[in-house]
Amino acid sequence: MTADAVDENKITERHFATAALFALPVRLVIGWTYFSAFWRRVSLEDKLNPDVPGYVGEKFNHFLPNALGIGPIIEHLLTHPGQLAVAMTVFTIVEGIVGICVIIGLFTRIMSLAVLGLALGILLSAGWLGTTCLDEWQIGILGVASGFMLFLSGGGRYSVDHVLSARYPRLTQRTWFGWLTSGAVTIKTPAVLVGSLVILALTLFTNQQFHGGVYGPLHNKSVAPKIEVSEARVAGNSLQFQLYRTEGADVYGSFLIGVSVVADTAGDTVVQLDGAQLSRLPETAIANRYVAKVRPGAHSLIVPLGAKAQLTIDTGPIRWHAEHSYTLVLTDINGATWKQAIETAS
Q1: Is residue 176 part of a domain?
Q2: Same domain as 334, residue 254
Q3: Contact 128, 136 (CB under 8 A)
Q4: Contact 273, 313 (CB under 8 A)
Q5: Using the 8-state DSSP alphabet, how is residue 41 labeled?
Q6: Is 132:79 a contact under the CB 8 Å cutoff?
Q7: pLDDT for the residue 10
Q8: I need a surface site. Which of 68, 295, 339, 346 has the fewest CB within 10 A?
Q9: Strand (E) or helix (H) holding 196
Q10: Are the C-beta atoms of residues 296 and 281 closer than 8 Å to each other?
Q11: What is the average per-residue pLDDT within 304-328?
């Protein structure tokens, strides 16, 4: 190796050390962001127990209605509670390991790819959430960009990677060691540019998809509740229908204070349940599908974000006429209503 080549190699190492130094604040903050998720769920509160309030699986349920591309995976876990509990535990442990490794700078480059992957998962699943600003979208897309930046820079002087390199200098001669940890590696400028442009494209696409943030009217699906009603029918003396809460704040339920059936021909209300009556519905009348559960509240029927359930309501001796048409009307406490035509037996 010539003297010029040695000098060039040293310059390269200095460049990487400087880049890693500049990235140090981001590395520490992004590391704590992921480790704190582990810390909150395991140490500060028990959020991994499916039987206690605040179970992280219910938060996971909130992601489902408008997740991008990974909805089937989320739904599979939600309909298999045992697998969901395992997945939430494994995910939490991974976040803890990745977070602490990024903070101390151990295997920085491979852990930065894990950061990128975790952030991408947050972006695709929860990027549509955020009541006052684009909370989850910002967390997700900034995590993707930060993970890519840390992969390029490595951990630098203030990292365990640097200590390992100094103690075991022979390892630094192995190409794979630099790609797993930190230090100088051969990264071509076009690769950095392409990676950055891909992340920019992902930013614009998801911002537009979730919020209309690039062109057209802005929209925020986390502001007001929306309930989709389907499969409304009369079976004997029972009114059955399925409801699915797809929009609104994840920390606040929809509160149904009215369920009524209107006969379209005569305009008469043939079924009318108010909030007090809905609050007294028996558990057998509600068949929940997911972890987030529709349940009677103190003065209404509470429908959390992402909850899907079939309701069966006893209508008593009401005579249903097949030649008439009927409409089911659900009324929220904020005045919003949702309607669905009812199928009656011939």
Answers
A1: yes
A2: yes
A3: yes
A4: yes
A5: I
A6: no
A7: 58
A8: 346
A9: helix 189-211
A10: yes
A11: 89
CB of 313 closer than 8 Å to CB of 238: yes
For the record, the structure tokens of 11 come out as 């310059």
Rg (CA), the chain: 27
Q: In this structure, is residue 120 part of a structural domain?
A: yes
Map residue 244 onto helix, strand or coil. Answer: strand
Residues 118 and 198 occupy one common structural domain: yes
Domain range for residue 174? 3-211
Q: What's the structural domain count of the chain? A: 2
> What is the reported pTM?
0.89
Contacts of residue 216, defined as CB under 8 A and 6 or more positions apart, other chains included, come to: 208
Mean pLDDT score of the chain: 92
- Judgement on whether residues 15 and 91 belong to the same structural domain of the protein: yes
Q: In whole angstroms, what is the distance from residue 115 CA to residue 139 CA?
A: 12
Q: Which residues pair with 262 in a beta bridge?
A: 269, 327
Over 50: is that where the pLDDT of 6 sits? no
Q: Where are the beta strands (DSSP E) in the chain?
A: 226-235, 238-247, 254-263, 269-274, 286-288, 295-296, 301-303, 308-314, 326-332, 337-342
Q: Is 226 exposed, middle or buried (CB count within 10 Å of its CB: 0-12, 13-18, 19+)? A: middle
Q: How many other CB atoms sit within 10 Å of the CB of residue 174?
A: 11
Does residue 288 lie within any of the structural domains? yes
Exposed/middle/buried for 39, CB within 10 Å: 0-12, 13-18, 19+? Answer: middle
- Per DSSP, what are the bridge partners of residue 332? 256
